[in-house]
Amino acid sequence: MDITRLIIVAVGGQGNLLSSKVLGEAACRLDVPVRMSEIHGMAQRGGVVESAMIFGDAQSTIISDGEADLFLAFEPLEALRALNRCNSKTIVITNTSKLPPFTAAIGKGAYPDIETIKKLIQSKVGQLITLDANALAREAGNELSVNMVLLGALIETNVLPITAESIHDAISETTKKAFVETNIKAVELGRSAVSGTI
To answer: Would strands 70-73 and 91-95 be described as parallel, antiparallel, or unpaired?
Structure first.
């Protein structure tokens, strides 16, 4: 099986680790080999959280700089910060809803314009897909479902050997029952948002 390397970056509390867990469970349901590693950093204080997932017959969970085939960012500035993980063929999906770092929030730093961020990313990668995942999560009924919206967008690329049905099943298995319906709706909204752009 071909190897596909995925990097996921988020700010602590955005649900990166749950989305990785759902993806991993979906892969196992389809007998797709998957390996995963995580870097938590200062996650509980709003720092970056990074997951590396390798699908296929790989021997290691390490994804070196420039090796990501897919790159999923829950926050646009974090996408820009981790751009070194990508190459000129990488498909990048990023949320456009900002979650400014503490320094910007207190006026000690500036948050770049979203259009500037998009241009910088686009100039370095194969394809950039953007969506307002926060707005779609609210539409699904729970703003905490941003991670599920982005999973839907990721699956819609058809780069990973993962089906939407397996994601739905994994959500039912790994998330609290009270959130299953809104999480599945969020996945489908994410898929619809990027359908036809890939």
So the answer is: parallel
